Amino acid sequence: MTNILEVKNFSMTFGSTKVINNLSFEVKKGETFGFLGSNGSGKTTTIRALLGLYEPTGGELLIGGKPYSVDGGVRLGYLPEERGLYKKESVLDTMVYFGQLKGLSRQDAQQVSMDYLKRVELDGKAHLKLDKLSGGQQQKVQLGITIMDDPELLILDEPTKGFDPVNRRLLMDIIEEHQAKGATVIMVSHQMDEVERLCDRIILLKNGKSAAYGTVAEVKKKYHMKSLDDVFLHVYGSGEEAQNA
Amino acid sequence: MHNLGTVINFEIMRALKKKSFWLVALGFPVLIAGVFAIVYFSNQTTDQAAKDLAKQNFSMQVTDESRLVSPAILKALKVQSASSKSAGVEAVESGKIDAYIYYPRDLTKQKIEVYGQDVGIFNNGRYDAMAKMLLSESVKATVSASVQTVIGGSVQSSVTTYRDNKVYDPAKEMIYPGVYLVLFYLLIAFFSGQILTSTTEEKENRVVEMLLTTIKARTLIIGKIIAIIGLALVQAVLIVLPILVIYLLFHDKLQLPSVDLASLPVNVPRILIGAAIFALSFLFFTGFMVLIGSSVPTAKDAGQFIGIIMILIFGPLYAVSLFISNPESTLVQALTLIPFTAPIPMLLRNAVGNLTTWETILGLSILAISSVIVMALAIRVFRFGVLEYSRKLSIKEIISRK
Lengths: 245, 402
Known about the structure:
- The structure holds 2 protein chains of 2 kinds.
- In chain A, 37% of the residues lie in helices and 26% in strands.
- By secondary structure, chain A is of the alpha/beta class.
- In chain A, α5 links the parallel β6 and β7.
- In chain A, α2 (91-101) packs across α3.
- Chain B is mainly alpha-helical.
- Chain B folds into 2 domains: 4-30 and 168-400, no CATH class; 40-151, D-Maltodextrin-Binding Protein, domain 2 (3-Layer(aba) Sandwich).
- In chain B, 65% of the residues lie in helices and 5% in strands.
- Chain B has 18 helices and 6 strands.
- Chain B has helices at 4-16, 19-54, 71-76, 85-93, 125-140, 145-151, 170-173, 175-204, 208-212, 217-250, 268-295, 299-303, 306-314, 320-325, 330-337, 343-352, 357-385, 395-400; strands at residues 60-64, 80-81, 99-103, 113-116, 162-163, 166-167.
- Chain B has a 4-stranded mixed sheet, with helices on both faces. A two-stranded antiparallel sheet of chain B has the order 5-6.
- Chain B is elongated and about 90 Å long.
- Chains A and B meet through β5, α2 and α4 of A and α1 and α9 of B.
C-alpha cells in the first residue's frame, strides 16, 4: 500500500519551547490512523504543520508526496479542534460557500448540503443563522462541510468532542462510510474504545515524541496490555498527565 | 486564484445582508437629502408667506421709522401701519394679527424687530424673511436695474488666465484629479473599520483553520479587498445618485450653480498620477489594516487602531494651506514621501499641480514598495497569526515569523 502521508524528522519549536522533537511516521492510503496523546503532546501542532498552517522548524511533512497546498491535488476534509463557523450566516449559505470553495458547483453544493442536513435532521434549520443552533448542531454542520466533497483524506481532530452518544454514533457511521469508500482517515481522539474499533494503526505521542507506533494489536502486544486504555495509562502513568487526556 | 469569485460574492452578499451596512450606507445620502430639504422648505416658506400675505391669509402690521419701506408695496400687499410699536406687539400677543415688524430709524445701528405667532420651528423663519424682503423690494424700487445688481452682489464676471500662451484655469483643472482625494477620503472613512474587522472575524469565529485548508490566504485577502471595493462602489452610487436626482429635478428651485462637466479641462497625466496615488495608497492602508487585524485576537482589539490610522491619514489636512502656499518646505516634502501620511499631500498637491516630477516618481515608488512589503507581510501574518486565538502578536514575531 502506498503512503498518502509522510512525516520525516519533524521538529517544531515555539520560542524556547520544543513542542515536537524529531517525529517520523507515515499513513498508508485507505487506512484509518489514530493519532493519540495527552493534551499538549503535540497532536494538533503536527496536524497544523501537515496542513501548512504552521511552518515546521525542521523536517518534512508530505501529503501525496509533497507539502500540502490547497491546489495540490488531494481532496482533503479537515475538522479542526477549534470549532467555529460564520455565526451570522445561515447554515445553508455557509455550507454552500465551503462547497464552492472545495470545487463544487453552486447547485451541487446546495444539493449535497440539503441531503446532509436531512440526514442529521437539521434540514428544518437550513435557513437559520448558525448562532441560533446549539453547539452540537453547529458541530454537525461543520462535520457536513468537512465531508461534503467526498474527501480522499479525512483529518478529524477530536471529532466526537461535545457530541452526545446518539450523535457520536452518527459520526462513527459517517466515518465508517468513508472508510468503506476507500478514504484515508486520520483521527485524533481520547476515546480509546472508538480508536480500537475504527483504527488500523496508531501513533501515541508523549512530549512531542513517538511513544508507540504500529497496528493496534502490535502496540498492545509491545506493552503487554489488553486494551489501548491500559497502554495509554502505562505510557502516561496514572497521574495528572493521564487525567488531562 | 480560482476561488476568488466565490470569496468576492460571499463577502459582498453577507455585507449587503447586514443592517449596519445599510445604516452607514444610507446615512450619508439621507443627511445630504435632509440639508437640501431644509434649504428647499426654507425657500418655500418665504414664498408661501408672500403669497399668504397677498391673499390676506397672513395678517401683518408694520411701523417704519426708517422711511425706507415703500408705502406702495405695503398697500399692494395690504399690510397696515400700526399706530405704535407697543400697539403692534400687543396685537400679535393677543392673536389679532399674525405678525408685526418694527423698522427702526437707523438700520445701520439698530435691529429690525419682528414679532409673530408661533407656526413651528421651520415656518417661524418666514417672518424674518418677510421683513427683509419688504425692505429689499422697497429699496430696489428706487434704483435702476444695474444698481440693484451691484447692491445685490449678483454681478457676474469671467476671468481668463493664461499659461504658456494658452488659456489655463487652475481651479477647474484640479477638479478631475481632485476626485481621487474625495474617493480616498470616503473609502477610508466608510470602510476602514470593515477592512480591519473582516480579518479578525474569521479568527473570532474560529473558522479560519477550515478556511485556510480550503483556500489560499492570498486569494482570501485579495477577495476581501475586491469585495470592499465593490461595496465602496455601491456606497458611491448611493451617494451620487440622490445628489444627481436632486440636482436634475431641483436645480432651479434650490438655485444650484450650473455645472458643465464637458467644459472642464482634462489633464490626462495628472488624472493618471492621481489614479496611481489613489490605488497604491488604498493598497498600502488596506494591507496595513489586514496586518493589524491578523495580529490581534478580536475586532475590539483591532478597533483601537482605527483612531491611530485616521490620525496618520488625515492629520496632514491640518497643514493643507502649507501644501498650496509653501510646497518646497521640508515638512510638506516629508509628509508627501512618508507612506503613512502620503495619500492626502500627494493627492492634493497633484490636484493643484505643485507636485514636482521627482516627488511624483519618488513618492509613487515609495508607496509601491511599501504596499508590496505591507501586503506580503499582511498575508504572511494572516496565515500564521490567525491561529493565535487569544493573544496579540508582537512586532518582533511579525517580522521574524516564517
